[in-house]
Amino acid sequence: MDFSTALNISASGLAAERTRVDLAASNLANAESTRGADGQPYRRRDPVLTSAPFSQQLGAAIGEPAPVGVKVTDIVEDASPGRRVYSPDHPDADEEGFITLPNVDPIHEVVNLVSAQSGYDANATAIETLETMAQHALDIAR
């Protein structure tokens, strides 16, 4: 595998992890939102990640499957119901005095953030390692 392919694979991982962090942060920021632009409570969102093969020619040349990165193919809303909380004085309360809060679990979102950070760090380390290897290769060529 050449340096640019390895770099592209790690870069795809960085982009995917950034999307995961952005969505988890958005979910946390809206954890108490009772009304969105559509008038409904916010719904937590998750990315759909799929493998993305790179150059098929590279795999054929070395007799192995093509290197695979990752890409975000969709962002889906969680269809689970929100939490109902009794708050009769709230402007969004129904006839029974309940409001519906988003289906966001802060603990779940923090776990998502930590997991995404670990993946981001791993990909950043891979890029730094590639940079070091390329620099050593250039030093040897001198």
Spatial extent as radius of gyration:
22 Å
* Cα-to-Cα separation, first versus last residue: 23 Å
Shape: elongated
Strand-residue proportion? 15-25%
Structural class: alpha+beta
Domain module count: 1
Order of helices and strands: HEHEEEH
Q: What share of the residues lie within helices?
A: 40-55%
Lateral arrangement of strands in the main beta sheet: 1-2
Explain the layout of strands and helices.
Layout: H1 3-29, E1 45-53, H2 56-62, E2 68-77, E3 83-86, E4 98-101, H3 106-141
Antiparallel strand pairs: 1-2, 3-4
Structure characterization notes:
With 142 residues, the protein is α+β, with helices and mostly antiparallel strands. Helix content is 49%, strand content 19%. It is built from 3 helices and 4 strands. It has helices at residues 3-29, 56-62, 106-141; strands spanning 45-53, 68-77, 83-86, 98-101. The strands form 2 sheets. It has a two-stranded antiparallel sheet. The protein has a two-stranded antiparallel ribbon with strand order 3-4. Helix 1 packs antiparallel against helix 3 (106-141). The protein is elongated and about 75 Å long. The mean pLDDT is 88.
Keywords:
single chain, alpha+beta, 3 helices, two-stranded antiparallel sheet, 142 residues
